[in-house]
Amino acid sequence: MTNPCKLLSIFVALWCLSPVAVLAASPWPTVNRAVVNEHIVPRYQHLVEVTAELEKHSRKFCAAPDENGLADLRAEFQRTMDAWMAIQHVRFGPVELYLRYNRFQLWPDKHNTAERQLSKTLTEQDVSQLADDKFPYASVALQGLSAYERLLFDGDANFNRFLGMEQDSYPCRLLEAIAHNLSRMSADVHHEWIAGTPSYLDIVLDAGHGNSYFQSSDEFSARLLNNLYTSLQFIVDQKLLYPLGASPAEANPRRAESWRSRRSLRNIALNLEAAESLYLTAYSAPLKAADKRNEGLDREIKVTFSRALDAVRDIKLPLYDALQTGPGRQSVEHLLAVTSDLKSLLGGPLPAALGLSLGFNSLDGD
Amino acid sequence: MKRRLFLRTLVGTLLLPAAGRILAATSAELYISARSGDLEHYFLSAFDSAGKLAYDLPLPGRGHGIALRPDVEEAVLVARRPGRFLVVFDAASGEVIHTLNSRPDRHFSGHGLFSSDGRWLFTSEIDYDGKRGVIGVRDVTDGYRQIDEFGSCGIEPHDLQLCRDGQVLVVANGGILTHPDLGRAKLNLDTMASSLIYLDAQTGRVLTEHSLPLAMRQLSLRHLAVPAPDLVYVAMQYQGAPEDRPALVAMHRAGENEIRLLQAPPAVLDQMRNYCGSVCADVPGRWIAVSSPQGNVVTFWLAQSGEYAGEARVTDGCGVAAGARAGEFLLSSGQGGLFRYDATDASITHLGRTGLPDARWDNHMMRDAHPLSG
Known about the structure:
- The complex is a heterodimer.
- Chain A has helices at residues 4-25, 28-63, 67-85, 100-104, 113-124, 145-152, 170-194, 200-205, 217-244, 264-290, 295-313, 319-322, 326-347, 349-354.
- By secondary structure, chain A is mainly alpha-helical.
- Chain A folds into two domains: 34-191, CATH 1.20.1420.20; 216-354, Four Helix Bundle (Hemerythrin (Met), subunit A) (Up-down Bundle), CATH 1.20.120.
- Chain B is mainly beta.
- Chain B has helices at 2-10, 266-272; strands at residues 30-36, 42-48, 53-59, 63-68, 74-79, 85-90, 96-101, 107-114, 120-127, 132-139, 145-151, 157-163, 168-173, 195-200, 206-210, 219-228, 231-238, 249-253, 260-262, 278-281, 287-292, 297-302, 308-313, 317-322, 328-333, 338-342, 347-352, 360-368.
- In chain B, strands 3-2-1-28 form a four-stranded antiparallel beta sheet. A four-stranded antiparallel beta sheet of chain B has the order 4-5-6-7, with no helix packed on it. A four-stranded antiparallel beta sheet of chain B has the order 8-9-10-11, with no helix packed on it.
- The radius of gyration of chain B is 19 Å and the shape is globular.
- Mean pLDDT of chain B is 89; it is low at 1-26.
């Protein structure tokens, strides 16, 4: 005979225990909310603000192109790149829809698609292609920050494509179209994170119940951890090794990201700051909470972040120039070594200690 | 640490024959799979049915499908899409025989297949400039020199198999447009068209072409298994809204026009996450295994009737291969696990980690039944 009171008391005991046990076992629901609200959304919010300014200044410049206006616009472009570099590491969510990630910035561009597309469109001068409803479907290489940089900078400080141009020239209309496109995409991504139905934030917060996007809260944390690792991998392989080459003779400074505007190292510094912020917001506390013995790993990761940031800030020349001198290369190689150490820490010991998987087949199948 | 350093020196240069050979195969069968170590270096590995490592070779990039040459201990690993390399190797010893590249204006799409007499190698390839898919034909007896090319009648051919006793080549056109400049970004999801094409394996002549109804055009037909000469199984991936719940497994019988969609129980379909990664039949062709790595589940089906027959939970499980007996499958995980599943009693056995502590098994696994006979 089963005693109903006994059964009931077992249920009550389970009901009381289980949420406590779950909370104690998984820090991720709380962490995920903090990461979205404190790390991801504010960075997209900032991108919305600077791209709106970029659009405004592009229109102002094109109404009367002159030297001062160009200097002003170049400064706006630098601010926009700063904002993008601060969120370049997030590769999923609304930014992966409609190819937005590539439309923000096509890089690396190993086949020189941007150059080909840009020279084609500047020759054809088909204004109808720049319309709001057409431009998002133009070549991805034309739509974002890489094309905008090519219009403003040529790698030569005295370059001015717009000098002597009438108002509303085709290159200027293209500048406006790109800036508008960037501004609209930023607003859409930000909106979809916080206010869509459901918003991506809702989806992340609901992950604990399992939904069409995430089976569990861990899965969101693991994908973001993968993005953190990928951002270091991107710095090491694409931003440093690719232009560095095996020897000075094989160095190719034009393979560096943003070499025309001479901000390659600034990009890396901002990426590292963003990665460090993500680590501190999302993973540092759960790492230590999982096991007291992880404190050493946490300290090692924090120290390596500082060393990497010091290494990049210590290089006073633009990467473009540093790659072409002996001492410059040495300092870049030092930065490469420290960022490689950091990458290894984030890709091996950290996921293992957190009990999260970076994913393999589940992440990008075929 | 030492081993990784040693292997790393080989990666990116030429593959050295026998460099990865670790120990001689002693078992009656081997399982071959591409894998990654630290997500940056890629290998081709083989192990026996107990999970014991036979060989492990560094690859110039991430590998994908494996083709076995009939009657000879030779096999080909194809680069993952969009890749340029093929590695021809001795399937028993792991010695590299050739490494080849695609034509400069073509990229491999991940899968290859030998003709039934072992004379020709077929590979699914993409002509990005022409925005079309092709099937490359290489002469095995002439150092795998490319001698022909068939049109695949669609964008992005992916898996290909032989059916009707080797006379007919069946090709899954995935229908997703990408471009090497954009990595693997999908460019045409609103207009994609996926199809199943049957070609004469001798001439490349198109015999029949089959598609799903227009309303289901965001289902990408990608991987194939042929449990019987006239029966083709298709594992699909859905590119539409994550909330939709289309069927993800289909069968097509020779002579029929329609591709038949197979229904998993709704709770299992929820777990499959609109994505299937790999499909295979058991040795007698009685059972089918379909992996869904995003949902951490492998589903099983009765081949002739298409009835749902159960599932196994494997975290990040993607590789599936026939085991030696009816109803037996080997399953591999991107987290390094290897499992034997017996569909007759739904039992699963963990095989351990082959002595490769950092192995992440890639999408596909291939059974080689006679590694010592070559």
